[in-house]
Amino acid sequence: MSDFKDKVAVVTGAAQGIGRQIAIQFAQEGAHPVIVDYNEEKGQATADEISEKYCEALFIKADVSSYEDNLRIREETFKKFGRVDILVANAAIGMKHKINEITPEVWQKILNINLNGYFYLVSAFYNDFTTNKGSIVFVSSGSALSGTGGSAAYCAAKAGGEGFSRALAKELGPLGVNVNIVAPRLIDSGPMMRVNYPTQADLDAVIQKIPVRHWGENEDVANAVLFLASKKNSYIHGQTLYLDGGRTVG
Ligand SMILES: NC(=O)c1ccc[n+]([C@@H]2O[C@H](COP(=O)([O-])OP(=O)(O)OC[C@H]3O[C@@H](n4cnc5c(N)ncnc54)[C@H](O)[C@@H]3O)[C@@H](O)[C@H]2O)c1
After folding, report:
1. 29: pLDDT confidence band, cut at 50, 70 and 90?
2. Which of 42, 165, 192 to mutate to test the pocket of ligand 1 (most atoms within 8 A of CB)?
3. 25 near 220, Cβ under 8 Å?
4. At residue 192, does pLDDT exceed 70?
């Protein structure tokens, strides 16, 4: 039987792209995905499709940068499924700005979603994880290490999320909660990748920087998230796993 049968996995930013694929793969393994997103149309459609094909899903329309919305995510998850086992903090926005183009408002917006949203999510569910074992995965980016591929605000938020994850791993590891980070880079999720590489010439140029000479797919990230959150993983903890074709480290 699958590790994930009847478990509940909250995945933020799951209306589309990488988050959607993570939610699908949890459902294919028998877990109930909670699809959190502020895009109601796509989020509800994803939840409906998953419920019809794989396992009952719940869509919650929420803005992860709101602390109150995160408290409501916890409340609605428990109302529907009565438990939580896995958190995947995936929702983020990407914007490409030079540092002198980043206004305080843009900086704040990116940090509010990409970093504060992660802390608010963990905070809302913290007591559930201290009483029940489970797994938390933060979706970062290779740019947290390399400083390229997004704006400086994006890189700063992702690096902050990684620091937070490592502190969380130290704090929750002794309680049986597994915490890890996946750091994708150039995944063909659709919009996010196109923000940074808008033309075919941009994509052709970046492929030359990737040792395996191709980009990744949503499944590459979802496979890694499911492995890290599964019982097959008991000893990878507080780590960053790069999903980047060998581009970032090495
Ligand atoms: N695609 C890549 O190449 C790549 C590379 C590095 C890191 N990542 C990371 O992977 C994750 C997923 O990226 P993606 O490519 O699937 O992006 P995407 O833009 O396709 O999906 C992001 C989802 O998050 C949702 N979202 C954004 N802000 C939100 C908010 N405030 N509240 C609720 N929902 C919100 C969006 O509506 C969208 O559904 C992100 O954390 C991103 O930083 C992606």
Report:
1. very high
2. 192
3. no
4. no
Rounded average pLDDT over 10-36: 98
Where would I find the H helices in the chain?
17-28, 40-53, 67-81, 104-111, 117-131, 143-146, 152-172, 191-196, 200-207, 218-229
For the domain bounded by 8-243, which CATH number is listed? 3.40.50.720
Residues 154, 197, 235, 242: which is the catalytic one? 154
Ligand 1 pocket mutation, candidates 34, 37, 148, criterion most atoms within 8 A of CB: 37
- CA of 121 from ligand 1 middle (Å) equals 15
Global pTM?
0.97
Which ligand 1 atom is the nearest neighbour of the CA of 114? 41
Q: Which residues line ligand 1 (CB under 6 A)?
A: 13, 15-19, 37-39, 63-65, 90-94, 113, 139, 141, 184-187, 189-193
Output the pLDDT for position 96: 82
Q: What is the mean pLDDT of residues 86-109?
A: 94
Residue 36's pLDDT band, with cuts at 50, 70 and 90, is very high
Task: Please report how the helices 104-111 and 152-172 are oriented relative to each other, as an axis angle in degrees rounded to 10.
Answer: 30
The two tokens of residue 207 are 């492929």
Pair 233, 140: CB distance under 8 Å: no
